[in-house]
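Running this now, will post back.
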Amino acid sequence: MDYKILERDAKLGDGRSAKILEERRQKLEKLPIRDAMGNSLTWCQTAIPQKLLSDIDRMYDNISITSIDTDISIEEESFHSCRIEGADTTIDELFDIFRAKRRESKGDRMILNTYRAVKYLNVSRKRDVDTLVDLWRIVTDGVCDNPNLSGERFRTGVVMVGTHQAPEVELLDYCMKQFFEFYHGENLSSPYIKMAVLHFYFVYMHPFCDGNGRIARLISTDFLIRSELDNFSALTLSKTINETAEAYYQALENSENNFFDVTPFIQYILKTVYDNLYEVLQEQNRYVVEHTDWGAVFE
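Update: finished.
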């Protein structure tokens, strides 16, 4: 559902677009998390096919991984997450980075920092604001953009991310409270849907001067692992996001709408998890579901 186009056309007097929006509004349910202005985020449960969720569960249950897979995955996850943020290091250079600790370029340093951040999450038990601040310091060590906006904890000024203006600095404490109450609360039954909401909200509040995208992806995978989905320690969701970066940013933008409906991003994340699992099973010559192009389904 392309909110941007529908809202634009409805504003111009298009009755069909207005009708579609009204029908969607009536199906929305509130989520137990509010934006910086106190508006509850919403989602459309009927827009999430049960087959998609059940296929994800089935594929996950059939994946076979080893400790070697996990070690390689952490390196590749760090690589792809940084590529999304513009790192120019190539996949062929990963060996030199991790075996020789090469730090010749900013991209090399970004990848090593992200790898260190994953290792930090593996040994840290707490998940709170201090955890996020620690991640920010690790991820941006020696490669921090916008240092003029760097504070002791959060950014010190307003930032624009594409068309999104992140909340005022004075509202970040409130946003963080919302984030962790939702994170630790018993609310959504599907960890994948909950992870998608957490990912969106972190990018929405954009608490730091730099590194927000990398941190969002780190805590997303970490949340799944902490939800007893341990196999995600050996998967590389950032690889799939990197390959569909345009759709990733489009889903984020499309989830900022007049209804506060984050369903477009939930759909994108579920499709990403599905495609990632399917690709891994393909490599293992295991076909447990018939492939569905969920991107086409959601158009």
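Strands lie at 29-34, 40-43, 160-161, 164-165. More later if anyone needs it.
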